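The aim of this short unit is practical: by the end, you should be able to scan a pair of folded records and say something sensible about each. We start with the first protein, listed as its amino acid sequence and then its structure tokens.
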Amino acid sequence: MIFVYLRRMDEFWCAVAVDDDGDKVLATGFGSNEQSVLKNVLQSLPYNVAFQVADKQSQFSDKVLTAIKSMVAGESVSAEGFKFEMAYLPEYSRRVLSFLLKVPVGYVTTYGALAKATGGGARAVGQVMRANPFAPLIPCHRVVHSDFSLGGYGGEVVGQGVKMKHAILQREDRCFKESTKIKVDGSVLLVFPVGFVLERLKFKRLSYSSL
């Protein structure tokens, strides 16, 4: 049995699906609409497994939902302490998500850099990001194009996901100035300051305003 927990936290709805032992995360989601958040989480669950929307929060679900709220708010939260159930995901998806989990607050990586580190292609990484069942805890909002444009992001309304991605990254900016490398599973993942993305967006707005 899978248990799904929902809670409104400030202006967002947050959701988490956990296993019947109550200590593994099977899927998470957040957004402005309760039904769309629930739908997205249920679509991420393994097929042919019974689920139940819980009436009362558990200690574990409260911890996960609080972490989601904190991450959306741009706080320095790490999800590495949670157990993510990935056995039902393709092997390459599991590898990409495990690398992405290491990208710290204040930094982004690119589809290309993540592909190079994980031994795949940028398009394959993009597909993993679109299907990420653990947003925002496994932070696909920290993956951008090689030119530091935002790229896509999930959202119940077309265009709203990108705005949300921008808003979260603005909150996560720690004013770092230099790129750095993270060692993961024998590979090296290149990460860049969030400010690189914000500067590009600022330059783009200025360019449009001068036309």
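Turning to the second protein, read its sequence before its tokens, just as you did above.
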Amino acid sequence: MGVTATARGVVRVVLPGDAAPMTDLASQGDDASRDAAADAIADAAARELAEYAAGRRRTFTVPVCLDGLTPFRLAVALALRQVPYGRTVTYGDLARRAGRPGAARAVGQAMAANPVPILVPCHRVVAAGGLGGFGGGAALKRRLLALEGVEIGTGSRAAPR
């Protein structure tokens, strides 16, 4: 797993097996302000993600920078950040929460393009009939949900334990 940050917040979380390389984002801020602040944010994010993976953290406090998202994708991300640990929503539910009922497919595309998975918990978005997709793969999505106490049955809706 990898984390990239600027002085404004985490801009990228790379999951294990993610084909997208970590990019150098130094150009997103001047080097003088970026170095110490960005490094501190990236270190804090890595620590919080490790605590989450160990079952010792349920919420994240590190800032997340969502600059560059379209207004729709930003609305989806902000609505998703309100879904609590151990809960799931369907793509259709999240579309409604983001103010775009009927845009479930567009929500799926927004989740596929989520630059900060886990911090913006796209693993908590499930298909109406089962697991749904996830950039880190189905096995990782199941592990993350199981960590939060959610089991996804074959062909059934997600339900918290």
